[in-house]
């Protein structure tokens, strides 16, 4: 299968160096490289704008300046997209069916979810201008044909924004939450200019100001990444923990008096602090499992970020599942166990994160088990991550 293969895109910097120290943090630019452009044109099977229009494009927009000089875009109906392009409209090809495998490759490369990676194309016409703005995504662009000029500057107005904004747009409450300065009317004076020619790569970090100009026809590849945020990681872990408790799944309509809502929220905040205290980094960041055997004196705690359930029962056995919820993926282990194990399993399943567990506890809940069986059960549950060794 053909791949974009990003290993040499940022040369002389390698992909690991780019991912760890540049992506989302600073501008990166590489000069034109005819070899890279030729390789990508072959991989994408795009040598001219005709090849782009021959693809299965599910969404294409016209990109233009309106009378006020602001950048506008409008969906191009597929039947008329080519005529509009020929009439001088710059086209933004956003959903290209043939690019789905490239989007999966990009998601794997940068360890983000499949929906968070997009691979798109711009077909710029001479005279196309994109007015100064910023986007809430990290952008990597590679020039495939023609020339396009970019001006890029850090954003002191709203660093690391979660929403896009362009000069002249109304300011939204979302942006005001972290606005530092008055909104600028033009790109800041410290902007750097880059002339992208075939094989040039440019990384515009999330939130950086940018504007573009085209003096000739050009086709550029755009890799767009929606990064996971530091707060998303912890909020996802907190929600995984809260969702186990029916209290937090209660509906809250707005029918209470302000006094009732205030006193409920006061109690909820205290409970939330307790839940937060039970979050453990060792549950949120999955470390490799130990190879140490379980001894009779080995002690465990009920781990967080996991849930236990019974999938089916027959006379002698129970089929159980343990799901371990992760930020990027959730793993579920299915096990067949003797029914005598169930009381101890249910007891451990209902425990709060951080509660201690050892072999005497298991024997108390499932008195039919031998010490050896209790030891095996704890070892098995450690592998599913329902228990964590202390
Ligand atoms: Fe942009």
From TrEMBL:
PROSITE patterns reported in the protein's UniProt record: JMJC
Domain of life according to the entry: Bacteria
Keyword terms, alphabetized: Iron, Metal-binding, Oxidoreductase, Ribonucleoprotein, Ribosomal protein
InterPro entries: JmjC_dom, NO66-like
EC numbers on record: 1.14.11.47
UniProt cofactor(s): Fe(2+)
Keyword DNA damage (UniProt): no
GO CC term, one of those recorded: ribosome
JmjC domain segment(s): 79-242
GO molecular function, one term: metal ion binding
Top EC category: oxidoreductase
Name of the protein: 50S ribosomal protein L16 3-hydroxylase
Organism: Crossiella cryophila
């Amino acid at each position: 299968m053909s791949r974009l293969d990003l290993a040499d895109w940022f040369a002389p910097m390698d992909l690991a160096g780019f991912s760890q120290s540049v992506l989302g943090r600073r501008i990166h630019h590489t000069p034109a490289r005819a070899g890279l452009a030729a390789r990508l044109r072959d991989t994408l099977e795009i040598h001219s704008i005709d090849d782009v229009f021959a693809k299965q494009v599910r969404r294409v927009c016209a990109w233009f300046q309106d009378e006020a000089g602001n950048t506008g875009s409008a969906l191009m109906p597929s039947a008329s997209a080519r005529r509009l392009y020929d009439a001088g409209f710059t086209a933004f090809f956003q959903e290209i069916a043939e690019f789905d495998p490239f989007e999966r490759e990009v998601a794997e490369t940068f360890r983000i979810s499949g929906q968070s990676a997009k691979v798109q194309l711009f077909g710029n016409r001479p005279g196309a201008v994109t007015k100064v703005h910023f986007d809430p995504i990290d952008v990597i662009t590679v020039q495939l044909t023609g020339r396009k000029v970019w001006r890029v500057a850090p954003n002191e107005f709203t660093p690391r924004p979660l929403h896009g904004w362009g000069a002249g747009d109304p300011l939204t409450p979302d942006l005001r939450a972290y606005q530092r300065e008055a909104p600028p009317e033009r790109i800041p004076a410290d902007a750097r200019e880059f002339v992208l020619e075939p094989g040039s790569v440019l990384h515009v970090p999330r939130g950086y100001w940018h504007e573009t100009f085209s003096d000739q026809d050009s086709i550029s590849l755009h890799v767009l990444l929606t990064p996971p945020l530091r707060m998303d990681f912890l909020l996802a872990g907190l929600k995984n923990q809260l969702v186990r408790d029916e209290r937090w799944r209660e509906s809250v309509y707005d029918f209470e008096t302000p006094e009732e809502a205030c006193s409920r929220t006061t109690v909820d905040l205290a409970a939330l602090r307790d839940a937060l205290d039970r979050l453990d980094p060792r549950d949120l960041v999955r470390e490799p499992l130990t190879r140490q055997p379980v001894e009779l004196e080995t002690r465990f705690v009920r781990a967080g970020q996991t849930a236990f359930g019974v999938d089916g029962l027959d006379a002698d056995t129970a089929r159980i599942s343990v799901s371990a919820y992760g930020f990027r993926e959730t793993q579920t282990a299915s096990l067949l166990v003797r029914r005598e194990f169930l009381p101890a399993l249910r007891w451990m399943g209902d425990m709060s994160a951080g509660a201690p567990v050892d072999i005497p506890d298991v024997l108390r809940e499932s008195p039919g088990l031998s010490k050896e069986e209790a030891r095996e059960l704890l070892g098995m549950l450690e592998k599913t991550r329902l228990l964590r060794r202390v």
